[in-house]
Amino acid sequence: MFSKILIPTDGSVIANAAARKGVEFAKQVGAEVIALFVAPNYQYPVYVEIVPPSYPNEEEYKASIKRTGETFIKAIADMAAANGVKFSSHSMFSDTTALCIVQAAQEHGCDMIFMGSHGRSGWGQLLLGSVTAKVLSACHIPVLVYRLQAEPGDKAA
């Protein structure tokens, strides 16, 4: 049925819960998991004439965000290893997260995307996170949207 499942993450509580369920689903159907972390591009400080000394340059930003993404992906890798699920990962920088998720699924030959209903920026979206909604509208493969059944931190999630 499904052989490769893309699981995007932003490290949020909902993304982690979705990843856990996505790995469990992959185990049930015998699929491989590909984790994806998409970070926003570096933004130059255009609001000031002089860049503050504490503001990171582009290389520092990318190195820091890459380490953060590796931490998020490692959590999924550990889940996959614990469940005996084949795993690989990919990270990228882009300001069009949803399109990157869809493109990554196509490039890696995925036949499903398993993602959370909201991410870090999703609390303001009452029904569905904006990235998730964009993935749903742009994607031509099945997208399983995992919604938490309890508040973050509850054992029932």
How would you describe the overall organization of this protein?
There is one protein chain. The protein is of the alpha/beta class. It has a single domain (4-146), classed as HUPs (Rossmann fold). It is built from four helices and five strands, in the order βαβαβαβαβ. The model is unreliable at 122-127 (pLDDT under 50). InterPro entries: Rossmann-like_a/b/a_fold (IPR014729), Universal_stress_UspA (IPR006015), UspA (IPR006016). Residues 1-147 form the UspA domain. It comes from Undibacterium arcticum. Pfam families: Usp (PF00582).
Annotation keywords:
single chain; 157 residues; alpha/beta; Rossmann fold; 5-stranded parallel sheet; 4 helices; 5 strands; 40% helix; Universal_stress_UspA; Rossmann-like_a/b/a_fold
Strand content: 15-25%
In CATH terms, what is the fold-level topology? Rossmann fold
Largest sheet: 5 strands, parallel
Spatial shape: elongated
Order of helices and strands, N to C? Answer: EHEHEHEHE
Q: What CATH architecture do you see?
A: 3-Layer(aba) Sandwich
The level 1 CATH classification is Alpha Beta
Mean pLDDT: 87
Radius of gyration: 16 Å
Please list the strands of the largest sheet in the order they lie side by side: 3-2-1-4-5
Distance between the termini: 27 Å
Helix content: 40-55%
Structural class: alpha/beta
Total of DSSP H or I helical runs spanning 4+ residues: 4
Tally of extended strands?
A: 5
Structural domain tally: 1
CATH superfamily: HUPs
Low-confidence spans: 122-127
